[in-house]
Amino acid sequence: MIWILIIFTLHVLGMLSAFKAVMETRTSQGAIAWVIFLVSFPYISLPVYWILGRNRFRGYTSAKHIKDEKIQADLAEFLGELKRYQVPSSEISAAEAAAEKLALLPMLQKNSVELLIDGDATFESILKGIAEAEAYILFQFFIVKDDEIGRKIKEALVAKAKEGVKVYFLYDEIGSHSLSKSYMSDLEAAGIMIHPFHTQKGIFNRFQINFRNHRKVVVVDGKHGWIGGHNVGDEYLGRSPKFGHWRDTHIKISGPAVLAVQVSFVEDWLWALDEGIGELLWEPYVSDEKDQKVLIVPSGPADERETAALMFHHAINSAQQRIWIASPYFVPDDAIISALQLAGLRGVDVRILIPDRPDHLLVYLAAYTYFENLIQTDVRFFRYTNGFLHEKVMLIDDETATVGTANFDNRSFRLNFEITAIVKDCGFASEVEKMFLDDFDHAREMTESDLRQMSLWFKFKARMARLTSPIQ
Predict the structure, then answer these.
(1) Which residues contact 221 (CB under 8 A, 6 or more apart)?
(2) What is the distance in angstroms between the CA of the first residue and the CA of the last residue of the chain?
(3) pLDDT tens for residues 76-118?
(4) CB atoms < 10 A from the CB of 39, how many?
(5) What is the pLDDT of residue 317?
(6) How far apart are CA 112 and CA 399, in angstroms?
(7) Which conformational region is residue 279 in: left (phi greater than 0), alpha (psi within -120 to 50 degrees), or beta?
């Protein structure tokens, strides 16, 4: 009798979860798949759905409204002055105006942006910034490791904390699962506020491990900010025996746009701790070096819209001459595929740069199926061969480039908290172009013969890998 009751209960829960999937799943294909799975096999599907099924992050959205009130109060004194640096609407294209609506703050000018290629340049710049901090440091990474570069970062932060600089350290508990307790204890002993993002915080997120805070952000004194693909680990300096050279890109921003990066960090911090952060500087810092326009676009599963997917989709549609994309994980949805096909058909130079050496087998296999879809519309694929490619960069025409943390996959589009900097400046775009051309020189272009050489078994594995794209 007890077994009948258990089976009945599981089927009822399966049907209730199926109803929930119909109401909340963002794509019709996903909803259909979950309904069939939950109704037919509730014994297996229920725990899978509770852990992996949701793509709405509970609690953050409602808390965000409270946070925004606090942030706006802090900013109120300087909002008028900040408007002085807002790019006039007459200088913004329709595409940029649409992107602005996805961001926390508008596109701002009077910034200086430095392109940081690979780990040595990136960590040298970040460590120099930490050393020069006078008031506070906001430090946030998806992965932090207790290895050589991790300890160097720790020592630098501890030294500044002992000087009286406030340090706020935020990490993703899943990405940084191997971070040692001694590492965290050393930071805490120096008076550094260190805390996980708490993706499983709240009753509705208790079993949800599918979300990640994938942002990599450093802010110093509200004046200088760093965003990009590097995490804190020796492999990001090319010290991995498996991958060797690690190809990645970061940027350093100095100027008013750093306040938008700061707002993103404050929102994440307030979610994680349920308490305010210390006094921060909100007066816009103006760079004397350059006058580059920057828009900061944070995105994540708490957004009312699919911010990252819309941003990339719009970038593809707005490209007139070219769009070059570098991403370690290329597993886009059908809407992105269609946008890339249309761009290729209208004569846009579309190039996709992905790794030749995989670190995630399913992603590596699935990418071949997208190549098959896109090659017929003159979209070109390049596989980077000089180590592992991890940068997340786009170049749109001759004036706009993006550098950030978001990959071209469902996880970044819908499941991860990400942040992207959109830089509108011909000089910066030219630097990114040179970087891309060097990357293409270290890559092999895929051709139709690559497809013909695939065995039927390989094609089957690639197709099966593509089926898992919603959770890759």
Answers:
(1) 133, 134, 135, 136, 281, 285
(2) 41
(3) 666 777 888 888 888 777 777 788 888 878 899 999 999 999 9
(4) 15
(5) 92
(6) 15
(7) beta
> Which tokens is 384 given?
């980077």
Phi and psi at 452, nearest 5°, equal -65, -30
Does the global pTM surpass 0.85? yes
- In the prediction, which pLDDT does 46 show? 63
Active site residues: 214, 216, 221, 390, 392, 397
- CATH ID of 307-471, from 3.30.1160.10, 3.40.605.10, 2.60.40.10, 3.30.870.10: 3.30.870.10
CATH number listed for the domain at residues 60-294: 3.30.870.10
- Report helix, strand or coil for 282: coil
**DSSP secondary structure code for residue 87 in this structure:** P
**Per-residue tokens: 309:** 């997917």
Q: Which residue has the tokens 């307790």?
A: 181
Contact of 201 with 193, CB cutoff 8 Å? no
- Side chain identity at 379, as an amino acid letter? V
Residue located via tokens 């011909």: 426
Q: CB of 166 within 8 A of CB of 137?
A: yes
Dihedral sign (CA 201, 207, 208, 209)? positive
Tokens 């500087």 correspond to what residue?
281
Place of tokens 């090659």: 375
DSSP string, 258-269: HHHHHHHHHHHH
The CA–CA distances, whole Å, from 35 to 11, 46, 53, 208, 240 equal 12, 11, 11, 19, 43
Q: Is 143 helix (H, G, I), strand (E, B) or coil?
A: coil
At which residue do the structure tokens 């706006």 appear?
Answer: 72
Q: Same CATH topology for 60-294 and 307-471?
A: yes
Q: Domain limits of the chain?
A: 2-53, 60-294, 307-471
- The residue among 472, 384, 360 whose CA lies nearest residue 435 is 384
